[in-house]
Design a protein that fits this description.
The protein is of the alpha/beta class. It has two domains: about 70 residues, Roll (Ubiquitin-like (UB roll)); about 140 residues, Cell division protein FtsQ/DivIB (Rossmann fold). It has a nine-stranded mixed β-sheet with strand order 6-5-4-7-8-9-10-11-12. The protein has a three-stranded mixed β-sheet with strand order 1-3-2. The protein is elongated and about 100 Å long.
């Protein structure tokens, strides 16, 4: 009798396991069938407008989604949408830094976009104009939006890929990155003019003078520190319009040229 009950326990245990497995398969099959029937009910595009940038519009991103999927994406089954391909294509937009696409609980396709952030606008001697981003990517101009950043003018070569660009452009990028990290310099520097020999003249927003900066070399930080000290201890006392030029190219010196004379001081 004891042996019989032991056998029955094993039979019931196996039957229980088979029942649970069968139930799991039924639930899984039902879930897969339900998932395959899910369709897109809405498209939500989130662009980082709080950054102050407005290169992209929500409408153009929605149009791109529709174009990539051969028509209106709303009402289309999710199983028929290649999300990796769509995300990859949106990232190719020259104004997009990051893009993420996912489905939320309301069956909406959500597109989160971070725009590229310009730090410099280049207008070179060839008449070519574009932005350089904080990641050293080239950004084309936009007919619908212009951002206010420092401008680089003069002898800057034009190349297709800024990451393999001229040493001059690399130096400009280095200089502007340094300027933007300093609150005072970022508020002061308005333009940079590149001479034929690669040396740079920095033109501030006020004072009407030119700063002969020279090369953006290993002495760059020390040059800017001299300029900041001269502005705070010199020009704040004698006036910002007293000099027509300030020269930082000489080690441990600030050489100035008065506006009303050719004598240097």
């Amino acid at each position: 009798m004891k042996k019989f009950w032991n056998i029955m326990k094993k039979v019931l245990m196996v039957a229980g396991i088979l029942s649970v497995a069968t139930l799991f398969v039924i639930i899984l099959t039902s879930a897969i069938k339900k998932h395959n029937q899910l369709v897109c009910k809405n498209v939500q595009v989130n662009i980082d407008y709080d950054s102050g940038l407005n290169f992209l519009g929500e409408g153009e991103i929605k149009d791109k989604l529709n174009a990539l999927n051969g028509g209106d994406i709303i009402g289309k089954p999710f199983t028929g949408i290649d999300f990796r391909m769509v995300e990859r294509e949106i990232r190719k937009n020259p104004f997009v830094q990051k893009a993420r696409i996912f489905i939320d609980q309301s069956q909406s396709i959500v597109v989160d976009i971070v725009q590229k952030r310009p730090i410099l606008r280049v207008i070179n001697s060839d008449g070519v104009s574009y932005y350089i981003s904080e990641n050293n990517d080239r950004i084309p101009l936009n007919d619908n939006f212009t951002t206010h950043v420092a401008i680089a003018l003069g002898n800057i070569e034009t190349h297709r890929n800024t990451k393999r660009d001229s040493s001059v452009q690399a130096a400009l990028y280095k200089l502007i990155l340094f300027v933007r990290k300093d609150e005072f310099l970022n508020a002061v520097v308005d333009q940079v003019y590149v001479q034929e020999n690669g040396e740079m003249d920095v033109i501030p927003k006020m004072g009407g003078h030119t700063v002969h900066f020279g090369l953006a070399d290993e002495a760059m930080a020390e040059k800017f520190e001299r300029l900041k000290i001269f502005y705070s201890e010199g020009l704040n006392k004698v006036g910002w319009t007293k000099y027509k030029s300030i020269d930082l190219r000489y080690k441990d010196q600030v050489v100035c040229e008065k506006r009303d004379t050719t004598n240097k001081q």
